[in-house]
Amino acid sequence: MRAVLQRVSRASVTVDGTVTGAIGPGLLILICAMEGDTDAQADQLAAKIAKLRIFKDDQGKMNLSIRDVAGAALIVSQFTLAADLRGNRPGFSTAAKPDEGKRLYDYFTARMQAEGIPTANGIFGADMDVSLNNDGPVTIWMDV
User: Fold this and answer.
1) How many domains does the chain have?
2) Are β-strands 26-32 and 72-77 bridged in parallel, bridged antiparallel, or unpaired?
């Protein structure tokens, strides 16, 4: 699985004029299931994100996890993270097929909740308007 994490002071997703998910401080997680990804990879990614120390402590150092700061996660499906850029037009054949991608997206969300992280979501496969205030800015790319 592939993810881009953005530390945010707030973030939201709107679909057809309706906010489908919103959080205050925490992480915006753009997530892509790749062809051949498994539940074990989603487990590994969720556990790693829950422990990742990218939030500021009292001295302003990145030393706290999303759990430590009682942050939330806005999880948004993003198949374009699978882009193959060999030509001028990206290809997405390495992304999981839609049914499996949705299943892994939902599974990953459940794993983040099991890690004790409150979650909000976009709508899988929808054309979404994602709004965020990047805190830092801090943006991390992960691949498991």
Assistant:
1) 1
2) parallel
Question: Residue 20: which residues within 8 A CB-CB, separation 6 or more?
Answer: 13, 14, 120, 121, 122, 123, 126, 128
Q: Which residue has the tokens 């074990």?
A: 40
The CA distance from 29 to 113, in Å, is 13
Q: Return the active site residues.
A: 78-80
Whole-angstrom Cα Rg for the chain: 15
CATH number (domain holding residue 22): 3.50.80.10
- Cα distances from 141 to residues 2, 7, 14, 69, in angstroms, run 8, 12, 23, 21
Tens of pLDDT, residue by residue over 98-127, are 999 999 999 999 999 999 999 999 999 999
The CA distance from 60 to 109, in Å, is 29
Q: From CA 59, how far away is CA 57, in angstroms rounded?
A: 5
Nearest CA among 10, 16, 14 for reference residue 130: 14
State the residue range of the domain holding 85: 2-143
